[in-house]
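Weekly puzzle thread! Below is a chain. First person to post its structure in token form gets bragging rights.
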Amino acid sequence: MGRVITFAGLPFREAESGVKRAPITGGDMKEMSAEVIRIAPRATLTEAVPEGSDRYLFTLTGGAKVSGGGRSVTMTEETFAVIAEGTKLTVANPNAAETTLISVLAPPANSAKRPGFSGGIVAAARATTPVHDLPAEKKQRIYFVGKDAAQSERAHAMIVVYVKDTVTSLHMHPNAESLFVFLSGKTRFTVNGKDVIVERGQATYFPMGDRHGLRVAEGEGVSFLEFHVPAAFVTVKD
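Winning reply:
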């Protein structure tokens, strides 16, 4: 079944000094593992990306410097980073305010193997990444992982922008899991057959075969970060 997650109510634990983590997804998701990571000013997170997995980071608030494998990238707010398997990475918050990251492993450790991202570490800021217009669907997309962005068969990731009358009807993906992280506006989302209003500070996720649909709840539009895992997926509409 689909789930609505509110970040403020998550059970954060201190993983290391100045670093708190809380899961977004649960055991019902087999193809991805997502969490919220909060890094205090001047604190640092250090760990390795498991073999067979891509690691994706998105700066929901604040900024970070991500280093590993001889590379380093600076992430401003709403920047997406892709980190290759096996990379020993350091995520540092050099700023005076807390940084909040969305972190996704695709797939989780010890899962089925698919070809993944092999470019070390790359980052793309929302503000400077090309926007693809889809006028027939009344939406825009900003690709981070996929054929028009970082190459991987493990996931497809993008920001999607709706205008006030954009509608995505009920549908499901029989061979992929989905995660939506809301960035702006209020979205009317159909979850388990019921409409809920979600906004920034919340996420929804759906196991394979779980029906969902969405539209703008109020105002001029919404935007959200969207993952489908794995990258090759089928959409079946009602």
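Puzzle host: Confirmed. Bonus trivia for everyone else. The domain at 128-237 is CATH 2.60.120.10 (Jelly Rolls).
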